Amino acid sequence: MRKLVFITGASSGIGQALARRCYEAGYDLALVARRAHEMQQWADTHQLDVQRYRLYVADVADVQSIVAAGQACLTQQGLPDLVVANAGISIGMDTAEREDLAVMARTFAVNNTGLAATFHPFVALMRQRGTGCLVGIASVAGIRGLPGHGAYCASKAAVISYCESLRGELRGSGVRVVTLCPGYIDTPLTRENRYAMPFLMSAPDFAERALRAIEAGVSYRVIPWQMGLAARLLRLLPDALFDRLLAGRPRKHRAPPP
Fold this sequence. Notes:
Blueprint: E1 4-8, H1 13-24, E2 28-33, H2 36-45, E3 53-57, H3 63-76, E4 82-85, H4 100-129, E5 132-137, H5 150-169, E6 175-182, E7 185-186, E8 201-202, H6 203-216, E9 220-223, H7 225-236, H8 239-246
Parallel strand pairs: 1-2, 1-4, 2-3, 4-5, 5-6, 6-9, 7-8
C-alpha cells in the first residue's frame, strides 16, 4: 500500500516541487491550496495518475477552512503518513505604517496559526496509530531578524519554536516532528527580492534534499547546508556588528496600497 502525503501551499513553488518529488517516490498526494485551477493544471501537465491524488481547496489563514480540508482528506484518502505544512507568505512591513499591522496579523495567521491548524486533524490519530511525520517549513530568516522583514522573520522564528515544542509533546508516541529551514529558494516568493540571495537553489533541488532529510529521520535541517553554516555564524555575531553588517540593506517589498 502506498504512503500518503498531505501538502499545503501546493499551487506553486516549494509545495509543488515537494509534491512532485513525493509522487516520484511513490506517495499518493493530498494537495491543498486556495487556487484549485493551478493545482489541477499542474497535475495535468505532469500527467499524474488520477487515482493517486486529490485536491482540496482551503485558505490556511482560515482555521475552519484548513481543518475541514484535513478532515476531508481523512474521509477520502485516509490518515496521511506525512503532513507538510508548507503554505506561507512573505511581505515586507514597516511598523510605523498603521496598515502594516494588518500585514503582520495576516502573516501570523498563515505562517503560524495556519501551520498548527494544518497539523490539528491528524495529531491524535497519528498518536493512536503510533506512526506519522509532521513537517513544518520554517526559514533561515527565522534565525535572525532582518530589517523590513519583521513579520516574516518573527513568524518563522515562531515556526521553529512551535515545532520544537510539538516534538517534545509527541516524544515517544511514534510521531515525528521535522523542522525544515530553507535558505533562498527560486520561487515566486523570492523572485521580487531586491537584495542578494546567496546559495540560491532551485525548488526541485530543495525538494530532493528535503525528502531525503525527512526520510533520514532528522528533527531539524537547514537547506542548503551552506546557508545553515552562514546562519549559525550570524547568530554568533554581537548585535552591534550584526546591525552594522545589515545597515543600508535593501528591504523586502511592502504590500501595495489597498
